[in-house]
Amino acid sequence: MASTSATGSTIVAGEARHFGAMAQDWWDPNGSSAMLHKLNPVRLSYIRDQVDQHWSLDECARRPLEGKTALDVGCGAGLLCEPLARMGAEVTGVDAAPELIAAAQAHAAGQGLEITYRVADVADLEGRFDLVTSLEVVEHVVDPGAFIKALAARLAPGGLMILSTPNQTAWSRLLTITLAEGFGRIPRGTHDFDKFIAPDRMKVLLADAGLRCVDVEGIAVSPTRGLHISEDLSLNYLVAAVHA
């Protein structure tokens, strides 16, 4: 939902409008963001595992992010921000679409959660955060390298960054665009295959931003297990990175 332009802005108006139009039913598990609802538990399990490993935490702790700050870039209406807050983090969520931020604020208030939401460009943010996340966002930017550098600038020393994105494979094109968008599981026009990023390229982009990739795991799908963490990176994958 963001990119780098000649003016230095990382916000792409067309992307913001596309996702902003989904704000009304973002929290409906059967609505236009249904696939994100299916992805979220898988992504959260990965985040929890990486958080526990990175800070050597008790995997049974109910609030592992207590005392830590978290930034979610491209937060939508807060699908990830809310569980991060429940994990104890002081959470800031930013998105380019005002409609999504309004929906996020309303939903958090209804849940009794204190989360800072802003309509903002990551390049314009100040401060640093212990945990920086940006899930299913980097494939929507014009300049992924500049975007990741902007994320890295917000990562505190000793912090952890987690990204996710579709792989650039025939399998991801078939499932994500041909089938999911073709049959209305994901709104048409959400993805551009040419912007999908292969893991090897992602590692280069992270290195160029002064980050070191510490883990890569896939999100695969099967008839028996549905979406799940896997060594198979061909559909979608998550990466964890730290300052080099």
Automatic annotation (TrEMBL):
Residues binding S-adenosyl-L-methionine, per UniProt: R43, G74, D95, L135
Enzyme class: transferase
GO terms of biological process kind: methylation
CDD domains given in the database record: AdoMet_MTases
Catalysed reactions listed for this entry: a 3-(all-trans-polyprenyl)benzene-1,2-diol + S-adenosyl-L-methionine = a 2-methoxy-6-(all-trans-polyprenyl)phenol + S-adenosyl-L-homocysteine + H(+); a 3-demethylubiquinol + S-adenosyl-L-methionine = a ubiquinol + S-adenosyl-L-homocysteine + H(+)
Keywords, sorted A to Z: Methyltransferase, S-adenosyl-L-methionine, Transferase, Ubiquinone biosynthesis
Enzyme Commission number(s) from the entry: 2.1.1.222, 2.1.1.64
GO molecular function, one term: polyprenyldihydroxybenzoate methyltransferase activity
UniProt pathway: Cofactor biosynthesis; ubiquinone biosynthesis
Pfam families hit by this protein: Methyltransf_23 (PF13489)
SUPFAM superfamilies in UniProt: S-adenosyl-L-methionine-dependent methyltransferases
Family per record: Belongs to the methyltransferase superfamily. UbiG/COQ3 family.
Role according to the record: O-methyltransferase that catalyzes the 2 O-methylation steps in the ubiquinone biosynthetic pathway.
Protein known as: Ubiquinone biosynthesis O-methyltransferase
The organism of origin for this protein: Sphingomonas piscis
Gene: ubiG
